[in-house]
Every structure is written in C-alpha cells, then in structure tokens.
Amino acid sequence: MKRNVFVSAAASAALLVAGPVATAAAVSADMAGTAPAAAAAKADVTAEQALAAALKNYPGVVESLDRDGNIWHVDVITKDGKGHAELEVDAATGKVSRQNVDTDENPGEHKGLLAAKITAGQAAKAAVAAHPGTAWTVEWDSGDNGQAPYWHVEVKSSDGKTWNASVDPTTGKVTAQSDSDSDSDSDSDSDSDSDENS
What angle (nearest 5°) sits at the alpha carbon of residue 194, between those of residues 69 and 91? Predict the structure, then answer.
C-alpha cells in the first residue's frame, strides 16, 4: 500500500514538472524497477518499425534502409516500378518525411526487386537470426557483373562490430560476407549505393 502511495506521489510530481510523457516514462520505469534512461532507450525506432512507417507513408517495396545517426534513410519503389521515394524516418520519434519523390522510373530496372520473394524486412530478420545484433543497413543488390541478385545486410553486434551478410531473395538463406571492426560503410557498399540511391 505504501508503494502505491509513493508511485502516485512521484507521478503527480513528474506531471507538474515535466508533463505527461515524462510521467508515463517515470511510472513505467518505477513499476518495472528500471531507470528512466533505460525506458527511453527502448523507445528507439527499430529497423522493422522504420520500414513499416516508411511503407505506411509511401506504399511499395523497400529497396534500401540505412541508419545514419538518428535518421533511418529508406528508399521505396512502387509496386508497378514507376515510382521511387527517398524517405527519412526519425529514429527517436518515428516521424516520416519525404525527401524526394520520382514518378517516371523505368519499371524494368526494378524487375528483380519487385519479383523477390524475400522482402527487406525478412532479409533483416534472417541476418539477425544468423548473427545476433541490430540490423543497420539493408540494401538490394541487383547482381551486376553476372552475379545473382541478393540483399546485403549489415548487422551491428553489441561489441560495436559490423557483420555483413548476403541474403538470397528467393530462399532467405544467409551467407556471411565478412567481419569488420569499422562503424562506417565498407568500400564494397559504395559501388551499389551510387546505383541504388540515384
């Protein structure tokens, strides 16, 4: 009974000082026995949530997703292949903003992506299942130079290392590309970035 009175008093004080958002965080943190900072960290928008928010704003098929600081950059192609949008999703709030929209794309350029059985979200989940961590980048690689198309996924481990994977767009099979200690994109990404994000 004393605990309930204390929680109510703490919630009332927080409401007066910081408003309803802080109150909810303080109460849920107190009830869970964790610090408010831990509750705030859980509110960070995940790759999966960023994908869902982007597709709600601009329906289609995700071509790429990349986290840069507090922003998720998401490229979406319409299902007919004629439209392309570059979106930004705020990693703290989930708010989506359209940066660029193009309605005269060549559908033939996106044929492989639109036919893929495995989506960007499914590729990210498969890579994280193969190598625990957080999906940081998911990019469609159309398989230039005679190579079969695949999803390139970067997973960041809790130790800060980046693990690169190829995910088969038909079967979902995950193959490791290489390990990297770098927090920046690898040189192999720069070739596909110029083609995919233009």
Answer: 20
